[in-house]
Specification:
The protein is α/β, with parallel strands linked by helices. It has 8 helices and 8 strands. The protein has one domain: TIM Barrel, CATH 3.20.20.70. The chain has an 8-stranded parallel beta sheet with strand order 1-8-7-6-5-4-3-2. The chain is globular and about 40 Å long.
């Protein structure tokens, strides 16, 4: 499947549903409300080693792309991301995000870019923002985890707002080419906090799909 790239930063906040919280018994119906309101969708890939949970392989990407009609971002929460890059690229992921803490992150970023895809780098809550420095000019997205990765439904860590602000300054200092994404515990209240700190991409999972009306939820975030 030919990848569809995520858009470039446009000066507004992008809303990114995480399908980890979608209803996979009726994926098409679960994602239908986000089609015209979200900017892209995220697939959270977990290997049971880097985080204590298992989730999706590359085979889910074409189904998510078809059901949502949107570009797909593969967030690789895995110990050895190099093993998965080709498979997720072939499946149609337009953005692949690896973790700074995983093996060979720099080589993975270069590999992703060589395939013509957009590349992201994620930081766990305890990882210093300085880890971004060697890679900033290569990145299309910087992801600041606002929960410890591995499970949906966790509470936003307010102490991560300082890290978001620091990352925003670093992105600006090198030309401002990358999205700055906050992921974890995002709801109507914390979306405002994360955006005020400098995030221009927000991943929404549990709060969106448990809201009862995902379309109304996203419209509400756009107003905020």
């Amino acid at each position: 499947m030919k990848p569809v790239l995520i858009p470039s930063p446009s000066g507004r906040v992008a809303l990114v549903p995480s399908v980890l919280s979608a209803d996979f018994a009726c994926l098409k119906a679960s994602l239908a409300p986000v089609k015209k309101l979200a900017d892209w969708v995220q697939v959270d890939v977990m290997d049971g080693l880097f985080v204590p949970n298992l989730s999706f392989g590359p085979g889910i990407v074409p189904y998510v792309a078809k059901a949502s009609g949107l570009p797909v971002d593969a967030h690789l929460m895995v110990s050895r991301p190099a093993m998965f890059i080709d498979a997720f690229a072939a499946a149609g992921a337009g953005l692949i995000t690896v973790h700074a803490e995983s093996a060979g992150a720099g080589a993975c970023i270069r590999k992703i870019k060589s395939l013509g895809l957009k590349a992201g780098l994620a930081l766990r809550p305890k990882t210093p923002v300085a880890r971004l420095v060697p890679f900033l000019k290569l990145l299309d997205l910087v992801l600041v985890m606002t929960v410890e990765p591995g499970f949906g439904g966790q509470a936003f860590m307010p102490e991560m707002t300082g890290k978001i602000s620091a990352a925003r300054k670093m992105i600006g200092a090198c030309g401002g080419r990358a999205w700055l994404q906050a992921d974890g515990g995002i709801n109507a209240a914390t979306a405002r906090v994360a955006a005020a700190a400098g995030a221009d991409s927000l991943v929404i999972g549990s709060a969106l799909f448990s809201s009862g009306d995902p379309a109304a939820f996203l419209r509400g975030l756009k107003k905020i």
